[in-house]
Amino acid sequence: MLKKILTFSLSIGATSVLFLGTALVAKDKVVLPPSWTTTRITYNITVEELAKRYYGDSKDYKYILEANKNILRGNHIVPKNTEIKIPITPKFRDQPEQLGWNSPS
C-alpha cells in the first residue's frame, strides 16, 4: 500500500514539474519556472545576450528580466559584478561558458 501511494505521489510530482517547465507564458504574462541557477556577471551584458547564450534565443530575455525585476528594475543592461538568477526553462543550456562563451576583449 505504501509503495502504491509513494509511486502515485512521485508521478504527480513529475507531471507537475513537466507542466510547470513547459507552460512558461500564459496570455503574454511571463510565468517563472520552478527553478533557476544563480550567476555573477563578469562584464556588462544585456539580458537579450544572456538569453541567447542560456536559451539559444534572445527573445526569451523576458524570463531573465522577470526573475531579476528587483535588481534590474526594467533595465536591459546587467552591470558587471551583478549576481542574477537564470530561470531553468526547457531551452536552458547549462554552463554557457563551456559552450564557447568568452568575455569580450
Descriptive account of the structure:
The chain is globular. It is of the alpha+beta class. 39% of the residues lie in helices and 17% in strands. The strands form three sheets. Strands 1-2 form a two-stranded antiparallel ribbon. The chain has a two-stranded antiparallel ribbon with strand order 3-6. The chain has one domain. It has four helices and six strands, in the order H-E-E-E-E-H-H-H-E-E.
How many strands in all? Answer: 6
**Number of helices, counting only DSSP H or I runs of 4 residues or more:** 4
Roughly what percent helix? 25-40%
Order of helices and strands: HEEEEHHHEE
Provide a brief overview of the structure.
This protein has 105 residues and is α+β, with helices and mostly antiparallel strands.
List keywords for this structure.
two-stranded antiparallel ribbon; 105 residues; two-stranded antiparallel sheet
List the helices and strands and how they pair.
Elements: H1 2-22, E1 25-26, E2 29-30, E3 36-40, E4 45-46, H2 47-55, H3 61-67, H4 69-72, E5 77-78, E6 83-87
Antiparallel strand pairs: 1-2, 3-6, 4-5
Helix pairs in contact: 2-3
